[in-house]
Design a protein that fits this description.
382 residues, alpha+beta, 3 domains, five-stranded mixed beta sheet, 24% helix, 24% strand, elongated
Length: 382
């Protein structure tokens, strides 16, 4: 089957698409293959789609090399056209500036990528060049297209167009910025002519720098996200910067005990900015300042008094706690159970009875601190 080429060059060496050719312009123009240089004919039939073909049907012109050559020409012409933009869009990784030195770092410390767009012509103001040698301390490279700047301190950008073979390991390991574009079909070429060159399965951005942010910026980001979504920050996203967030929570005098719909509870320190933000998946929570409550303050008991879902075996008068085991004195045959009893058992047990000293403590709490400004009870009304 005869190949139907969509692009050719005219007598002025301009790359043109077959859609820009009509019967009148065809009479006054001559066309050549942008790859092999052989003469091409514009086929403008009334039944089939229009296309170019080689005048010499026996001429050998590799389809992959043709696509590669046309793709480079499209990109260079587009970049070098005056008063136009050349916008790329990708999601650079964001990382805390102190990540490499931080003793608290782990795999959760990386911030999520953030999509951004850049006009390359703002920073790379010199014309794009095809297949020129570039020398640096890592060797000599010959990219398909190279973008350079009048600022000698700015590293160039390599644009590599490929069909099957990606950039060599030596080129990638050099640390140079590389935009890899995979082009397999004639239809793919059309995508290069306009629009944003976005990161995708076809376009990859290699060695582009991370965006570094300070720990304080990470804290503000998490606070803003939490306020925007109405969720507690530690529930919305992980505390990416352990040093700046988790450390501050551990050192905070403000504590919060949250009761979830499952009956489970979670207690942790919170930041001042988090006091008025609550987890909408919770039934209720209590927030208190450890410096304003008695030394024997029992927050779990307060929750359990206010909400039956918070009852657990440790609050029951039948619970016996020793150094080695925790057990229930009404369990059949007096058998013991190691570890913490499940919360669900305390909720449903017909023999549940408050510890006497807990009742006394609760009355003391109500009198001394529950009505104070440093103690807040929040109930989910949904």
């Amino acid at each position: 089957m005869e190949l139907q080429y969509p692009y050719a060059t005219d007598e002025f060496n301009n790359l043109i698409h077959i859609t820009s050719v009509n019967k009148d312009s065809r009479k006054n123009s001559s066309y050549r293959c942008p790859n092999c240089g052989g003469a091409m004919l514009a086929c403008l039939g009334s039944k089939n789609a229009h296309y170019f073909r080689h005048d010499d049907k026996n001429r050998k012109c590799g389809i992959e090399s043709y696509i590669h050559k046309v793709a480079k020409t499209i990109l260079i012409n587009r970049y070098n056209t005056p008063q136009t933009v050349f916008v790329i869009g990708f999601s650079p990784k964001r990382q805390c500036k102190e990540y490499n030195q931080c003793k608290h770092k782990d795999y959760n410390c990386h911030l999520s990528p953030e999509y951004r767009e850049f006009d390359l012509k703002v920073h790379y103001d010199l014309p794009a060049q095809a297949e020129v040698n570039y020398n640096d301390e890592n060797g000599v490279f010959r990219p398909d297209i190279i973008l350079t700047s009048s600022n000698p301190n700015r590293k160039p950008i390599f644009i590599e167009v490929y069909h099957k073979h990606k950039s060599s390991e030596n080129k990638v390991d050099s640390g140079n910025f590389i935009i890899e574009i995979r082009i397999k079909t004639f239809e793919d070429l059309k995508l290069l002519e306009a629009g944003v060159l976005q990161e995708s399965d076809v376009v990859h951005f290699l060695n582009f720098k991370n965006i570094n942010v300070s720990p304080d910026e990470i804290v503000r980001e998490i606070v803003e996200i939490g306020q925007e979504n109405g969720l507690r920050f530690s529930e919305r996203i992980l505390p990416y910067c352990r040093k700046s967030i988790k450390g501050r929570r551990q050192e905070s005098n403000i504590r919060r005990l949250t009761l979830y719909k499952s009956g489970k509870t979670f207690e942790s320190g919170i930041l001042d900015a988090e006091v008025n933000d609550h987890n909408l998946n919770a039934l209720m929570d209590i927030t208190y300042n450890i410096q304003s409550v008695p030394y024997d303050f029992h927050p779990h008991m307060v929750l359990a008094k206010l909400h039956i879902e918070a009852r657990n075996c440790h609050l029951c008068n039948h619970c016996v706690i020793t150094e080695d085991v925790t057990w229930c004195d009404i369990v059949k045959n007096g058998s013991t159970r190691k570890g913490t009893f499940k919360v669900e058992k305390g909720q449903k047990c017909p023999f549940f009875k408050w510890h006497e000293w807990l009742n006394h403590l609760y009355e003391t709490y109500v009198k001394d601190c529950l009505d104070g400004k440093d103690f807040k009870i929040w109930t989910n009304k949904q």
